[in-house]
Design goal:
alpha+beta, Aminopeptidase, 7-stranded mixed sheet, 4 helices, 32% helix, N-acetyltransferase domain-containing protein, acyltransferase activity, transferring groups other than amino-acyl groups, transferase, acyltransferase
Length: 145
Amino acid sequence: MLNNRIAEKVDYTNVIDIWDRSVKATHHFLSEEDKDFYQNIIPNFFEEVELMLWYDDEALIGFSGVDGQELVMLFLDPQFIGKHYGTRIIDWLKMNRNINSIDVNEQNENALKFYLKQGFEIDSRSEKDGFDKPYPILHLKNISV
């Protein structure tokens, strides 16, 4: 049964571990140097979002971070990708947090396809990410609102 809870500082090590495994499995376009950069900087944002841990019974499957109505983080442990957990999480966040926007790396084609299936569409594009790195970002809006 899918459930969630707000992450606490004691959970941050597990969050970073999931982030690392997920990025290794899905973000092949990132350089090793940039993976290290993001891994070191991402914890700085945990206090700025509603950071939630997602479980299937006792198994930690991933985490999400919401800022207002924007989903700014969604990472699943690779062993749970493709098993409909992402869809269930997005549905819950739409219903309970009213998320209506998401940014996604343009090179992360599987994530883009996933979000488009969830009712989002491309609203705009930035040539570089928020850290001025050469990873184009697609800004998505929820069209099913």
